[in-house]
Each structure stands twice: as structure tokens, then as C-alpha cells.
Amino acid sequence: MVELISDGDAGPRAIVQEVANQAGVVTFRVGGQLDVSTEGLLREALTSAVAAGTSKIVLDVSDLDFMDSSGLAVLLAAAREVPLELRDPTTVVRRLITITGLTETLRMTPDA
Amino acid sequence: MTGTTEEKSGTPAGPVERVAAASPTPSGPTPTRPRMARLAGTRPGVVGLVVLGTSLALTVALSWISYDVNQRNEHRLLKLQVTQTATVLQAIVPAVETPLASAAQIAATSQGSAVDFSAYIRSYLGASPKPFVGASLWKLVPGGQPQRVGMVGRPPILAPGSPRLQALLASAAGQKSVMLTGPLEPSSPRPRLGYAYAARTYVVYAEALLPAHRRVVVQRGSPFSDLRFALYLGKKASSPALLETNVDRLPVDGDTAAATVPFGASSLTLVAGSTGQLGGTLSGALWWIVAIAGGVLSVVAMLVAERLVRRRRAAEQLTATISDLLDEERGIARTLQQALLPQALPLVPGLRAEARYVAGAHGVDIGGDWYDLLPLDGDRAFFVIGDVSGRGVAAGTTMAALRFAVHALVNEKHSPAVVLDRLVGLLDVGRDGQFATILCGVLDIAGHEMTLANAGHMPLLVIGDGDSTYVSGSVGPPVGVIPNRPYRETTVQLPPNATLLAFTDGLIERPHEALDDSLEHLRSRIGSAAELDDVIGRVMVSDLGTESSDDIAILGVQWLS
Prior knowledge:
The structure holds 2 protein chains of 2 kinds. Chain A has helices spanning 39-51, 69-81, 91-99; strands spanning 2-6, 12-22, 25-34, 56-60, 64-67, 84-87, 107-109. Chain A has one domain: STAS domain (Transcription Regulator spoIIAA, 2-Layer Sandwich), CATH 3.30.750.24. By secondary structure, chain A is α/β, with parallel strands linked by helices. The relative contact order of chain A is 0.16. In chain A, helix 1 (39-51) runs parallel beside helix 2. Chain A is 31% helix and 38% strand. By secondary structure, chain B is an alpha+beta fold. Chain B has a domain at 337-559: Phosphatase 2c, domain 1 (4-Layer Sandwich). Chain B is built from 10 helices and 23 strands. The A-B interface holds A 33, 35-37, 43, 65-66, 68-70, 72-74, 76-77, 80-81, 91-92, 95-96, 99-102, 104-105 and B 362, 387, 389-391, 429-430, 433-435, 437, 454-459, 475-478, 481-482, 505, 509-516, 549-550.
């Protein structure tokens, strides 16, 4: 399942793709720009994963170029429900999480 | 059907800037978008009439085509029928020719025996249905006038010495079939028709009655029954040659057809028109059926067209109304936003303060950014800048709740960390889907010192001594993320005339740019600016807010000593 929000000719703005679902652990690949106009995509994916009784959510954010507070809110809301792991965050994402004092709330792997 | 043009005018939906300053700056009125210009579409009545006119024209054309096709068809059928009927006339030829031919033959064989002639021809004379009323036998004399040999029945109209009879007898002599002349005494009640047939030197002349006044009443079932006709002797339809007709006035009116057929050695010409529809009733009625149906359809089309135009106009007006409402909502959002922000920053002795609010390029939503500067007793002031995640009314109301909660908590003389601790219960990211980053602090004006607490907010930039640095203090998670987590405070000593710059993430967050790079760009942009106005001026670059969909709040505070 691939969900896209496209920006016209500029190509996809955000992409959320379920890449694995094993033993209660769902892995999504989240790429592009996660902001107020695209956060709904991820929120829907995470909400349904949580509703399906997922025990852990892994987000492969190695292709996530940008995230703002709206995107962060989606991650934080999901992290309330199930353990959430951000795999291979870019510097942008890692720094955002650091600067907002969320390093203990949102687990990033591998550890910096 | 109708062409409408919509014009949008007014200010582009770009960033709207708001200024709040300690020394109140007159801020211009918020530009309001003028209502969308509505160009009146074509009036429904006009469109309806155009449709009606077009449709009626089409109907008339179709109706005329139907009529014309029917007329042509009728004429073709009439022509066919007249030709056939004329051909039927030829069937009469033997009925008149045979007795005359036989009589002539008898006369020739019997050397002009008047007795034999009379005996034979007598049976063909009399009232109808006998073919003739009178007959005479003539002997042709070479070089002289024909001599009458015998005569039976009623006396002929053509006198024995009349040139017409002489000419008839002479011309009949060269023929092998019956010759006709007439009508004889056409003005009399019972005109006659003369026949002549020759065998060698003998010519039989007989006269037959024409109908009274040459008028006939045709019986049903006759080939003539559905024709208005006139029958002429000869190849032309000339009234002196009229033999019989069933119409009162000649020539036969209306659409007529003519056919000429040989009759013995003479010719008959039949001119006739139809009394009814030869091609059937439907064919004849089709043109006016088309006309009536087309007329009705035209009216229906007109009504439908009018209705469509009305509905289209209603839809256009609805669109305009929605657009207006959207504009109003945008205006309301901005008004609400401004109402939620300080109208003017308070004057705090020893400090100069300025603030800016730049709305993101993201439509009508209210943003969740805010700032405040609150004077405290004892030469101190409390500043706060915050950003509620998300947009819209939810973010706006949460922001208002947080802002007024901060007011209340500051009023109770709580320290920055305690203020943040107490705010934690007000929102929850799991419940509301929102969190808030807040940076707040107490400024000790005389002591050139400040105590900060940071809930996940962008760091504070301190400018002074020709340099600028971000305060690297303890940063806790944003408000609403983790319940019951005490925030820690950081105390910073400041140089004289120091300027503090607090801002929300909209100012520095750019796609494809690392946060640290953005922070560094901002720092280098400010450079060595010392005065608050200068700092604000360098921050407020012209393209601010055009790239980001997020709102931007900026609060600058400078020590005056």
C-alpha cells in the first residue's frame, strides 16, 4: 500500500508506504516532506495500524527530508499508543527532535 | 451557452504582517478583499428566446421539407395516375371502331348497298349504351364531293355539304383507324362527337352523344373517381376541344397533370388533379404534424433553456457567495488571530520591545503562534513565545487558552519552569493531537540577567557585544507530550544593551535545509546589528513567509542600558 500526496509536476510531496508487517511490528517508509499539508497521510496510516492492534511501529524515515510541528504531532500521538521507533532519521529530523526536547520520547535508531 | 467572466481582485492571499511594538506603531487597516466582481450573465429570457427562435426556424424548415416532399410525391403519383387513366381510355377505341370498320367493310364489299349498311349499323344506334345516335354512308368520288349513299338514325349535326364533314371524310380515307371530330354544337345541351372510318372508297360517318353540357358525374370505383379532370380531343387542352369534365370551372385548378394518348387516328388529352391525398393521409399531414410537434418542442426547449440558465446563474451566485464567505472567514480568522495577540506590547521601563506576526501562505486557517511580554514588579518582565502545532480553530483556541493561562500563572508569580509545569495538563497530544512548544523567561532588567525555561521551542538568540549566540540551555519536551515531567531553568548573564530574539519555527524551517544551517543563516543575517530596529529589519526579509506554510511570530527585546 502506497499513499502519495503529489505536488503536480514537482513529483510526490510526501510518501507513506507500508513495507513490512511481521509479528505485530508494522514498518512504514515515510519520505518527502511531512508538514501541515501532508501529515494527514501518515496520521491515517498510523491510526489504522494502532487500531489493528499493532504492538510496535517502526518508521523508516531515511528519506524524510522535512518535518514540522504538525508531523511531529502525528508521531507523538502515535507514540502515546504503541512504542514508536524512527529508523535512520536524517540530520534534519534528528535535529528537530533534539531541538524540541523529544529525544527521550521518540526513540531513534541507530542511536546517534 | 452563456459566457461569464469572473474577475478576482484585491490583495493576493500572501503573507499578512502584523506589528506589535512597545511604542505603538500605527498599523494600517487590514486590507479586505473586495467582493468578487459579479458580471451579470445573459438573461434567461433572452437565452430562452434564442432557443425558441432557433428551434422554430428548424421546425419551419423541417415542416417545409415535409410539405415539399409530399407535394413532389403527390405530383408524381398524380402524373402516374393520369397517364394510367388516359391509357384506359384507349380501351374504348375498339368499341367505337369495330362497328364502324365492319359497316365500312360491308359497304365496300356490297358495292355501297345502303340496305346492307343500314341492316348492320342499326343495331349500334340508339340511346346509351348504344355507341351512336346516327350514322351515314358516304362514297368518295375522285375529284368530286363525296356522295351520301345511305343514312340511319338521327340526322347528323354536320350538314352533308359542310366543309368540316368533307375534310373529315377526306382525311379518314387515308387512315386505317377511326377519326374523330368534335365537339359538335358544343353550346347545345347535348353536343355530339363525330366518327369516321373508311374502307376503300366508302366512309362510314357516325355521331355519338356527349354528356349533357359536357359535364359528367363520375361513379365510384371508376378510374376517374378520385380525379378532377377534363378530357379534350386533340393534343392540346383547349376549351373548344373539351369533350367532357367533372369540374364546374376550367381549367382544372390546383396541382394538375396532363397526358395525351392516341385514340384511333386522333388523340385525346386528359388533364386532371387529385381530389385527395394519393400518397396517404399521413404523408399529407406530416408537415403540419412536424410543425405542431416542433412548435411544442420549441416551447419546451425554451423553458428548459431558461431553467438551465437560471440554475447556472444560481450556481454562479452560490460560488460567488461561497467565495465571499471564504473571504469573510479569512478576514474573521485574521481578526481573531489579531484579537488573540497583544494589541500592543506593554511599555516596560528599561526595555524596548517589538514583535511581528507573519501569516503563512496557507489559506484561511488561524495559526497557533503567539508571544507576550508582561511587566513584573521589581524591575522585571516576563516574556513568552509559543507555537501550538497544527492550524485552524483548534490551534487558535488552544493558543488562547495557553496564553491566558500563562497570564494567570505569571500573575501568581510562578517561575518560568513552574509556568511550563502547570501548563502541561492543558493539552495532550494523544487526546487533542496537539502539542505546544513554549519558550518563556523572566528578564531581570537591572541585573542584566534572565532565567529561561524551554518546552521544545526554538532557541533564543542573544545579540550583544557585536556578536550573537543561541542560548544552549536545558530543553524539555513540548507541552502536551509527557505528563508530569518537571522543566528545568537556565540562567543566563547578558551584556549591556543586549537584544533577545525569540521566534517560532516558521521563521527558520525550510524544506531541504537542516535546522542548524537555518539557525546559522538567521544568525549571520543579523550579523553585527546592535539596535533592535536593525535586528528586526534584517529578520524581516522581503520573501518572509512566502516559502513556508507556517505562521511566523517574532519577539524582540532590547535592554536600553
